[in-house]
Amino acid sequence: LTSFSWGPTLMPLLQCLIAQFQVIYFFFSPQNLDDDTISGSNWITENNVQHSLSQTAKTTRKPYCGYKQQTLSKREQAEEESLLAAIQWPNPPDSKIAFLQSTDPSHSDFVIVKPSGFFKVGDQLEVLVRLKDFQGKPKEYGGDYLQARIHSPLLKAGATGRIVDCHNGLYKAFFTLLWPGEVKVSVSLVHPSEAIQVLLRLREERPDRVYFKSSFKSGRYSETTECNVCLPGDLPVCNFTDLYTGEPWFCYKPRKLSCASRISHAKGGYQKGLLTQEESLFFQSDVNIKRPIVSSGPDSVIVKPKAFTDSSIIDRAEDPTVSPSGYYYEDEWRSRTHWIHHFNNSDDITKCLQGKVIHLFGDSTIRQWFEYLTAFVPDLVEFNLGSPKNVGPFMSVDLKHNILLKFRCHGPPIRFSTVFSSELRYIANELNGIVGGRNTVIAITIWSHFSTFPVEVYIRRLRNIRRSIIQLLDRSPKTLIVIRTANVQELGPEVSLFNSDWYSFQLDSVMRKMFSGIAVHFVDAWEMSLAHYLPHNLHPKEIIVKNQIDAFLSYVCPLQI
Fold first, then answer.
1. Does residue 121 fall inside a structural domain?
2. Residue 449 has what DSSP assignment?
3. Contact 241, 66 (CB under 8 A)
4. What is the DSSP letter of 281?
5. Which of 11, 257, 265, 281 has CB 3.0 to 4.6 Å from 261, enough for a Cys bridge?
6. DSSP sequence for 312-333
7. Residues 409 and 491 in one domain
8. What pTM, to 2 d.p., does this model score?
C-alpha cells in the first residue's frame, strides 16, 4: 500500500489519506465497491467494443494514475532522479520549429576523420556527422537521434558505433575496428530533434495512447471496460493494484457486474489524431524516419590484421555499458564480454540443458527463444496447456534428458490479444515463487510494452524485479539469471508514436544502469539487431535469434578456457 509524505498544507495529506483509504477499501471490502453506481456510461459491450476515453477526453484530471502515488525511500528517490537525469535529452532552442528548419537527412552528410590513415584491428575510427535542414542550412543545435554501424558485407561482419552529440548540429560517431579488411560506415537519422520533442510530449501527456480492455462476465451477461495505469475522469474504477508489488492497474467499473467478475485482459487499440498537422511532417517514412545519411567523401577504410602476439581478446570483463559489446563475423556474434560457443547442433543444446529448468519471462521477443528451442531440439516437445496462441503460458518438456522449458508473459501493461486474468502474473511475484539452484535458469526481458508510459512506470517495474532477483540470488546463489535487452525495429509514422527506437533506447539505458553491479548476465539484443545486415524488425529473424540463443546458452554452459 502506498504511504504519504508530509506536505506544507493539510490538503495533500487529506488527498493521500483518501487515496490510501480507497486502496484499503477495495482490497478488504470488494463487495462494497461492487455496489458503486456510475454517472454516465463507461461500459462497452463485447459485440460493440468502443474506446470509452472519448467520453472523458475533455478532462485533464487523472485521479487514478498509479505511478504517481508511490512513496520512495531516499535511496530510491535519488536513484530515480539519477536515472532520469542520465537519459535527459537536449531541447531545441524553440519549442516550435518549422518543418523546413528541421533536420533533413538528404542534405546532411558525414566524413571519416583521416580516411586514408593506417588502421589496424583494435583501433578507433572517428566519423563527423554534419546535419542540415531542408533549406540546406547547417543545424545549430542537437537532440537528433542517430544510429551508426560499421560493416563488411562480404564477411557478414558488423558492429555498432557510439554517437556523441556536440549540441551544435555536429555529431561524432566512434567505432572500434574489430576485424580486418574493407570496413564501411553507415549512419542513419532515426528521428530529427524536432520529432523527439513530440515523442517526449506524448510520453508525458498521453500515456493513454495505447489503451487496454478487460472483459467481465457472469453467466451469459458480459461487459468490457477500458483499463490502464492511468484512467482519466471521475468514473468509478476497479482497482487491480498488485498486493505484493504495488504495481498499479485500473479498469473502469462495469455498469452491472462486480470487479471480481473480470475474466480477461487484452490490448484495446491505439489512439488516433495525436499530432498536429505540423507535427505530422516530422514523421514521414521516406523523408525523416530511419533515413540514411551519405558520406561526402570515402565511406570505408582498410583495416590491417592485428599482430598475433596482441591477444584477440579485447575485453572480457562483463559490463552492460561496454560499447560495442560484440560484433558479427561470418554471421556469428562474437562477444567482447564473454566467450560464446555456437550451438549449431541440437545435441549440444540438449547436453547443455540436461537436468535444467529454464524459465523465460517477458514479451514476444523472448517468446521467440521458446519457439526457437522447441523447434530446433527434437526431444524438446511442447506440452499443450490450452493457452491462447502467441500469448501463453507455454511449456516444453524433454523427459529423456529431464529438461523443462517454460514461457510466461509479464504482467500489465502488455499489448497481447486475450490473456486470461488468472494468467496475469508479475515477474517479481513469479521470481519469489522459484526455489532456484544450480539447475535453475531464468531469462527476462521487459521493455516494449512500456514505451508509451512515463519512464517512472518502467523504473518502478524494474525496481520490483531487481528486488526479487536479489532475494532469489541471496537464497540460491547458484541460480543463473540472464537479461535480454531491447532491440531495434522497423519504424513508420504510426509505429514511431508508440514504439519508436528512441523510446526503446531510453528504456534500455535505464535497464542497463539498474541491473549493473548485480549477479546477472546480459544478452545484448540491441547491438545484435542494430549491427546485423538484415532489416530491422521487432521480432528479429531466425539467424539473429540463433545468435541470441548462443549467447544465452554460453552463460548456461560456459566454455572452459
1. yes
2. G
3. yes
4. T
5. 257
6. S----S--TT-SS-EEEETTEE
7. yes
8. 0.87
Tell me the residue range of the domain where 173 lies.
99-197+281-304
35 within domain boundaries: no
**Residue 505 host element (H or E):** helix 501-515
Grid coordinates of 536: 530491422
Pairing of strands 291-295, 109-112: parallel
404 neighbors 360 (Cβ within 8 angstroms): no
What CATH number is attached to the domain comprising 293? 2.60.40.10
* Phi then psi dihedrals of residue 384, to 5 deg: -75, 110
Please, how many CA atoms are within 13 Å of residue 425, restricted to the half-sphere of its CB?
Answer: 18
For residue 217, the one-letter residue type is K
**Based on the structure, what is the number of domains in the chain?**
3
164 and 225 belong to one structural domain: no
Give domain status of residue 153, yes or no.
yes
Looking at every residue in the chain, the average pLDDT score rounds to 87
Is the preceding omega at residue 298 within 30 degrees of 0, hence cis?
A: no
Report pLDDT digits (tens) over 321-373.
678 999 999 999 999 989 999 999 999 999 999 999 999 999 999 999 999 99
Q: For residues 405 and 393, is the Cβ–Cβ distance under 8 A? A: no
Strands in 250-252's sheet, in edge-to-edge order, are: 237-239, 250-252, 221-228, 210-218, 262-270, 419-420
**Same-domain check for residues 339 and 466:** yes
